[in-house]
Write a structure and sequence with these properties.
Layout lengths: L7 H21 L28 H15 L18 H13 L10 H17 L7 E5 L2 H19 L4 H4 L9 E3 L5 H9 L7 E3 L10 H9 L6 E5 L11 H11 L2 E5 L24 E5 L11 E5 L3 H7 L30 H36 L3 E3 L10 E3 L6 H18 L6 E4 L2 E4 L10 H17 L1
Parallel strand pairs: 2-3, 2-4, 4-5, 5-6
Antiparallel strand pairs: 1-7, 6-7, 8-9, 10-11
């Protein structure tokens, strides 16, 4: 098969095979191990020389279904607790299939009125869902890293403007280093964003009062006072090891007093705003200048889906407008669009799954899901506290439970090595998926509960498996 133009029967067969495989696969997720190493040998079937004559769409689809359903990590299932990874709601999944079918370029309204309008509505619905005032805007991007990049890029443009420089056209040459301050919860994605923006991953001055990373407000106040000119403050809504929050309102007060830009990294913690039970954790969020969040975490939409929310959305256009080209719509023309409000030009229509899931389940559905996960996290914390061979290391304000195996009689100095072995065994075992971290100097597990499919039975299994593997040493 040399040309897709002459493979239309194979195309229809390929699509039918994927459709027929989808139902059984989705139905199996509740019982499948998250990863089954016995299927890894199938990855050999991906390798080989580039063929001169292809197999055709039907045969390739058949091969990929066999490989993927056996060797893939079943992260869409209810027991993937590693990192902070949601699943994909049914509405978002169906919409994502449609996105691939329609193959829209969300560059501008000229290239796709559908994608542009869906993005406009989706951003406004996300703003509303998070309780932010009317007037905020934003852009959909690939991930939390790109949401931080987009937001901190706008902050960079604002900062340079105060030095009399249009950094979009003139760059950073001749400017001093941009001062950036945060508590110890600052995430690697924010550092990576600063790295890509030319400030360097080491640009952040950390003001922390303990080894965990809790922010030292007095130290940050002194640091901001020592700066000659504007600065950027990064607040963290949802620390990745235990789900803790910086005091956003206090940081907003500092930022306002010192004339600094306040950026909030809310990759998953921003969703605390949805429930009255946790909204206090993000009190003061409306005083931020920019916010980063990750849709493929707690929103439960497909990769790649992040979003940046900006209090003054006009600043997106100032920072990211596309340099002129005669065949492209001008940034201020009716045919313009979101390519002028973020780092990407050609863009997948990731707005459509976001629009679909919010339209399908609404504010009440997402509040119910978040609160179910809050309850599940508390259940896991209670089971850990009740187990004689487990130890919880932190409070559980949101959806992450930080704990470690601590069998009776094991000396303190051996616990880190034991928990590393337990973490590795968990990933090899595959029934549940959770890796290790280091929290307050201790090796620990930190399962994150954000998948819409997760139930009490999945939480109970997590504890059973950890205790079983820890008992083996």
């Amino acid at each position: 098969m040399a040309d897709p133009l002459f493979d239309m029967p194979g195309t229809e067969t390929a699509l039918r095979r994927v459709h027929e495989a989808a139902g059984p696969y989705l139905a199996s997720l509740a019982d499948r191990p998250v990863h089954d190493p016995s299927g890894d040998h199938l990855l050999d079937r991906l390798r080989g020389e580039l063929p001169d004559k292809g197999e055709g769409a039907a045969e390739v689809a058949h091969r990929l279904i066999e490989i993927g359903t056996a060797a893939g990590t079943h992260a869409a299932g209810p027991r993937f607790y590693h990192f902070v990874t949601g699943g994909v709601t049914p509405a978002a999944l169906a919409a994502d299939w449609l996105v691939s079918l329609l193959d829209q370029n969300a560059f501008s309204r000229t290239s796709s009125p559908l994608a542009t309008e869906a993005e406009t509505v989706a951003i406004d619905w996300l703003r509303d869902l998070m309780g932010l005032p009317t007037g905020w805007g934003g852009a959909l991007v690939q991930s939390a890293t790109f949401a931080n990049f987009t937001s901190l890029g706008v902050a960079t443009h604002w900062w340079a403007e105060r030095h009399g420089v249009n950094v979009s056209t003139e760059g950073l040459v001749g400017l001093p280093r941009m001062p950036v301050f945060s508590g110890g919860y600052v995430h690697v994605s924010a550092r990576k964003a600063l790295q890509m923006l030319g400030h360097g991953s080491g640009a952040v001055t950390v003001c922390a009062r303990d080894a965990v990373g809790r922010v030292d407000l007095a130290a940050m106040d002194r640091a901001l006072s020592s700066v000659d000119g504007p600065a950027v403050v990064i607040a963290n809504a949802g620390e990745v090891n235990a789900g803790d929050f910086d005091p956003i309102a206090d940081l907003a007060e500092l930022a306002e007093r010192h004339g600094a830009w306040l950026h909030v990294d809310g990759a998953f913690g921003l969703f605390a705003a949805i429930s009255p039970r946790t909204a206090g954790l993000v009190a003061g969020i409306e005083r931020a200048d920019s916010i980063a969040c990750d849709g493929h975490k707690w929103l439960n939409v497909p990769y790649e889906s992040g979003f940046a929310l900006i209090r003054d959305p006009a600043r997106l256009g100032a920072a990211y407008r596309t340099p002129g080209a005669p065949y492209l719509p001008a940034p201020d023309s009716p045919g313009s669009g979101y390519a002028n409000f973020g780092p990407e030009s050609s863009r997948r229509a990731r707005s459509i799954p976001i629009w679909a899931t919010l339209a399908a389940y609404g504010r009440d559905g997402y509040r119910a899901m978040v609160e179910r996960h809050l309850d599940l996290a508390q259940r896991l914390a209670r089971l850990v506290d009740e187990a004689p061979d487990l130890e919880r290391l932190a409070d559980v304000p949101l959806c992450i439970v930080c704990f470690r195996a601590r069998p009776p009689g094991v000396p303190e100095h051996e616990l880190d090595a034991l928990n590393r072995r337990v973490g590795a065994a968990l990933l090899d075992d595959g029934r549940v998926f959770a890796g290790t971290t280091v929290y307050d100097g201790k090796v620990a597990l930190r399962p994150a509960i954000v998948n819409w499919r997760t139930t009490e039975a999945d939480i109970d299994l997590m504890v059973e498996v950890v205790r079983e593997l820890a008992a083996r040493g």
